[in-house]
Amino acid sequence: QAVVTQEPSLTVSPGGTVTLTCGSSTGAVTSGHYPYWFQQKPGQAPRTLIYDTSNKHSWTPARFSGSLLGGKAALTLSGAQPEDEAEYYCLLSYSGARVVFGGGTKLTVL
Amino acid sequence: QVQLVQSGAEVKKPGASVKVSCKASGYTFTSYYMHWVRQAPGQGLEWMGIINPSGGSTSYAQKFQGRVTMTRDTSTSTVYMELSSLRSEDTAVYYCARAPELDYWGQGTLVTVSS
Fold first, then answer.
1. pLDDT by residue for chain A (110 residues), tens digit each?
2. Chain A: nearest CA to B98, how far in angstroms?
3. Confidence band (pLDDT; 50, 70, 90) for B101?
4. Residue A99 contacts B where some CB pair is shorter than 8 Å
5. Average pLDDT of chain B to the nearest whole number
6. How far apart are CA B89 and CA A68, in angstroms?
7. Helix and strand tally (H, E) in chain A?
8. A30, B41, B60, B107: which one has the fewest Cβ atoms less than 10 Å from its Cβ?
9. Residue B63 in contact with partner chain A when CB distance is under 8 A
10. pLDDT of residue A96
11. Strand order across the beta sheet in which A64-69 lies
12. pLDDT of residue B100
């Protein structure tokens, strides 16, 4: 089974910009992996921020954006807010309707 | 409005089975697949599988093949996830989430496996 990798932790200053990445053990991440990004705060269910690489839900703050960068999926947060401190997970889809989550990135806004 | 309401917390002994339900409302039940995802205490998210409520077809993560069964009841708009041969490592919060965009999630069901 494929392994999806994320940075274990990142720190960003309030108002700053940070990019989280999501890689695949099978090779470059493409739009065909339909990358998703989720935000999870303690005690809450995950919330989808980005689907299909770069699409946003109505509730996704404009400061979040998704893209492909250097063979990985990327989530960029521009203008970090204290409420963005959370765990972020990516998800990739593989052939045969298989889906794999990354291990998560703990984002600290400090 | 779309809602996914899951069954309540369960405590099971090792070797037993658990069946978690997820009742959907606010949309056409058979038009959207449903994922099941779990999260062990302090750990990350783990995808378990997906079910098509229309025809009942399923796809399971390799790790759970042979131990998990996902079913649905179209008359009550409910999907079920049954996990057998439980062990302590199966202690987790189990979520259902609507596909394809995982835009709506259930509130989670805590399953505790303990002797």
1. 799 999 999 999 999 999 999 999 999 999 999 999 999 999 999 999 999 999 999 999 999 999 999 999 999 999 999 999 999 999 999 987 789 999 999 999 99
2. 11
3. confident
4. yes
5. 96
6. 35
7. 0, 11
8. B41
9. yes
10. 75
11. A4-6, A17-24, A72-78, A64-69
12. 87
d(CA B86, CA A72): 36
Is B64 within 8 Å of B48 (Cβ atoms)? yes
Q: Which residues of A4-41 are buried (b: 16+ CB within 10 A; e: fewer)?
A: bebbeebebeeeeebbbbbbbeeeebeeebbbbbbbbe
**A95 vs B: CB within 8 A:** no
Give chain B's count of helices (H) and strands (E): 0, 10
Asked whether the beta carbons of A38 and A75 are under 8 A apart, the reply is: no
Say if B106 is an interface residue toward chain A (CB within 8 Å).
yes
Q: What residues contact residue B24 under an 8 Å CB cut-off, 6+ apart?
A: B2, B3, B4, B34, B77, B78, B79, B98
Q: Residue B37: its chain A contacts at CB < 8 A? A: 46, 101
CA distance A63 to A78: 5
Distance from C-alpha of A21 to C-alpha of A66, rounded to nearest angstrom: 10
The phi and psi torsions of A32 (rounded to 5 degrees) equal -70, -10
List all residues 6 or more positions away from A57 whose beta carbon is below 8 Å from its beta carbon: A48, A49, A51, B101, B103
Give CA–CA dist A47/A56, Å, rounded: 12
List all residues of chain A from 6 to 65 with a beta carbon under 8 Å from chain B: 36, 38, 40, 45-48, 51-52, 57
